[in-house]
């Protein structure tokens, strides 16, 4: 049963809600809690979840417009929505959880529940790798382990599954009992206990006891009994003795670990189980991986897997890719590389990431055979084909014999190849142009070879951009804003060097209110890449005015000349005469760069009042020293002047508009001047001049390269052009492929700059060349090909700026376009 979902009426009963509107025969298969992940209106029920920071009810109108009709709400929306159906409940999150719990109750297959501080996702993925040859497994997508993530995971259970693996994570007391009700595991794994979320618990012990609330009723609980706290809490928990499966070095452990040999490429773990000596090898040598692997081993043993099968599968465990990467590809394509796994669940996740990308109209998926054992192969490939069409995939390339067998199931433009080899033989780069390409294949298909063909050839220097960190920083600044204050994100100058539409796209997805660019062409580029947020253009030029009107970009008007340019463009550009042109008025309150001064306001208002099609959307000014306490008096003077000037404008124009004066540094330091919007720039990219604030931010950009060649030189020999640097002893020199043409300033030559090589600082030797730089790596254990960090998390850009006697802004924006940007998201 349940392949077909539940009738809406039944869902109303399951959630205890009241139905409004005619449900007809509507059957629900998909649950949606994040309106941004909306893909198809059919068979989808939206839960309007209310959190302290967000209220799902505000997205109902938007979803209704897109065709969605079924909503679970705690209050009915105001304007009537014909043919929409509402399930009204007192608490939508609770309703979602009840629904998932009722769904779960209809299955009697084994369910593994995993909790603990670390390792949950990796253990879940590894168990999937180890057991999926025999079992059809449903598991939490990514690390969906929260109060919302768990019900969504459990909802994926279908009658075809014969094993479920779900993770559960909590951050506060009282949460686990809800998750227990939904997952109701029959088998438990307690990974370990660490210090995350300590602030919400009175002690480690309280946290451990709280986490154990996932396990009442399990027939088996796997844990490490070397940890005295975990052991003690479990022994007192009331769980039956015979259900406990502990492992550890202690003598009483059920699976007793007798030795671990660690080598560079892997480790061997020996143990005794039921009186027998056993051993496994895993291709990892870090402590966390060893612990995770032993948890999996215990499960394999309890499932009755023999030593040979267990050992051979353990050896083949693969790293769990915790992040999805997107890179610039050939012919203007973007390539999302997920070449590690191939199964419907992880495909759905990767497709979601693809759907978030708006830059290309065409979505292409290259997919290998699924490596999931399934008794119903056709059913499995039907699910895949359905997923691809739901997510709007236009072009599909299937690789592998099973794909060939099921080619008829796919409805989009398609082609099939029996093997990776045959695809590569027939590869024509011209067949891919301006597309977003998702590459997803099981390990044995070696899709990294396809990846190489699709990637833009470029040298090894890359700028890594962490989109999660960007979003973290965005959200951090949101917490500093008064309710209702809007946020404009500055994406001028190629988003401070970190990319254009990729960054804007992430900001749009995470609902920034406004974007700002410097020039019209930057704005046009964003529009062409599908960015629909309002965009302010700060330096409108005469040549760009018409393009701005055409692409609905909003110019900053800073003097009478720029206003005249706009009026002229409005005349010659054939906008419908009734359409409104939105502008932003810049006031000069002390920067003395661009902007109207107080004495000009009277004339300005007269002109604006005579141009009824123009509407002032916002009025703003810029602070000259918001980060510098020594200038606070001047900053306050600017703020007061701004306040006074905007009041005057409002009176004369007869309507209100947005007001904004704060840049990054101003947001925290002058909260009283937030007005109705703030403009977040450099700090969005993880940089603050205030050391306390810096601690709250995450590093967004890292510039990395790798060693091309290593050589040893003798005392007295010199390095580089003009013999500017002389070795005073026997010296090891590494050459790296980055130079001033990449934006690495020549000012960093001859020891001024230092880079990070395998955890050690290596000074620059000699002058920086156009495309190359030499480092003194004497005493550092390094080989050709090793990574070199120019700046990043461990080597903050601020230090580099200091060495160069400049500011981080200059370093970031100087990184040339030839350095490939790689975006990733966890
Ligand atoms: C660049 C810029 C900002 C952002 O400044 P940050 O210091 O990077 O936050 C704000 N307003 C204007 C007008 C700008 O030009």
Please, could you describe this protein's structure?
The chain has 826 residues and is α/β, with parallel strands linked by helices. It contains 27 helices and 41 strands. The strands form 7 sheets. A 12-stranded mixed beta sheet has the order 21-20-19-22-18-17-41-23-32-40-37-38, sandwiched between helices. A 9-stranded mixed beta sheet has the order 9-10-8-11-12-13-14-15-16, with helices on both faces. α23 links the parallel β29 and β30. α22 runs parallel beside α23. The structure holds pyridoxal-5'-phosphate (PLP). Residues 490, 492, 538, 622, 663-665, 679-682 line the site of pyridoxal-5'-phosphate.
List keywords for this structure.
9-stranded mixed sheet; 41 strands; 826 residues; binds pyridoxal-5'-phosphate; 12-stranded mixed sheet; single chain; alpha/beta; 27 helices
Chain-wise SSE layout:
Blueprint: E1 6-7, H1 8-15, E2 18-20, E3 27-28, E4 30-32, E5 44-47, H2 60-65, E6 70-73, E7 85-88, H3 92-105, E8 111-115, H4 120-131, E9 137-139, H5 149-155, E10 163-167, H6 176-183, E11 187-190, H7 204-211, E12 220-224, H8 228-235, E13 244-248, E14 255-262, E15 267-273, E16 276-282, H9 287-302, H10 307-315, E17 324-328, E18 334-338, H11 344-355, E19 362-368, H12 377-390, E20 395-399, H13 401-405, E21 413-417, H14 420-425, E22 435-440, H15 448-454, E23 462-466, H16 467-479, E24 486-490, H17 492-496, H18 501-509, E25 514-517, H19 520-528, E26 535-537, H20 545-550, E27 554-557, H21 560-572, E28 581-586, H22 601-609, E29 614-620, H23 632-653, E30 658-660, H24 664-669, E31 677-680, H25 691-696, E32 701-706, E33 709-713, E34 718-719, E35 725-726, E36 731-736, E37 754-757, E38 760-763, E39 773-776, E40 787-791, H26 797-804, H27 808-814, E41 820-825
The protein binds pyridoxal-5'-phosphate.
